[in-house]
Amino acid sequence: PPDVEELGRATWTFLHTTAAYYPEKPTQTQRVNMLSLLRALPVLYPCSVCAQHLGENMKTRPPDVSTRAGLSRWLCEQHNEVNGRLGKETFECTVEKLDERWKDGPSD
Ligand code: FAD
C-alpha cells in the first residue's frame, strides 16, 4: 500500500499549487476540468479512508471552482478539516498566506 503521509504531502502540493495558479477568471472549460479533477479524488485516491472522508466532506461543502481565491480557500478548508482530524495545526486560509506558501514564497 502507498505511504499515506508521503502521498498526502505530494497531493496537497499538487492541489494547492494548481489552485494558486488557477485563473482569477477561469473559462467554462477550466472550471469543468477542475471540477472533474476534484470529483475524481473520492473515487480514485489510493488511500481509501482519505477518499471516503473527502467524499463525505465534498457532499456538504461542494468545491468552489469559480475563482482562484475561491478554489484556494476551499482546498485550504478541506486540508484544515484533515489537519483537525489528525491533530495537526490549522492553516490560516487567506490568499496572502496561501500565496506565500504555494506561489510567491515569503516576501523579502
Ligand atoms: P501535510 O498535511 O501534508 O501538509 C503539507 C504542507 O501544506 C504543510 O507543511 C503546510 O505548509 C501546508 N498546509 C498545511 N495545512 C494547509 C492548509 N489548510 N492549506 C494550505 N496549505 C496547508 N491522512 C490520514 O491519515 N487520514 C486521512 O483521512 C487523510 N485524508 C487525506 C485527504 C486528502 C485529500 C489528502 C490529500 C491527504 C489526506 N491525508 C490523510 C494525508 C494528510 O493530510 C497529510 O498529508 C499527511 O499526514 C502528512 O502530513 P504533513 O504534516 O507532512 O503535512
What do these coordinates show?
The chain has 108 residues and is mainly α. It has one domain: Up-down Bundle (Four Helix Bundle (Hemerythrin (Met), subunit A)), CATH 1.20.120. The chain binds flavin-adenine dinucleotide (FAD). Flavin-adenine dinucleotide binds next to helix 1, helix 3 and helix 4. Keywords: Disulfide bond, FAD, Flavoprotein, Mitochondrion, Oxidoreductase.
Which superfamily, in CATH terms, is the homologous superfamily?
ERV/ALR sulfhydryl oxidase domain
CATH architecture: Up-down Bundle
Number of domains: 1
Bound molecules: flavin-adenine dinucleotide
In short:
Helices cover 70% and strands 0% of the residues.
Provide key terms for this protein:
single chain; 108 residues; mainly alpha; Four Helix Bundle (Hemerythrin (Met), subunit A); 5 helices; binds flavin-adenine dinucleotide; flavin-dependent sulfhydryl oxidase activity; disulfide bond
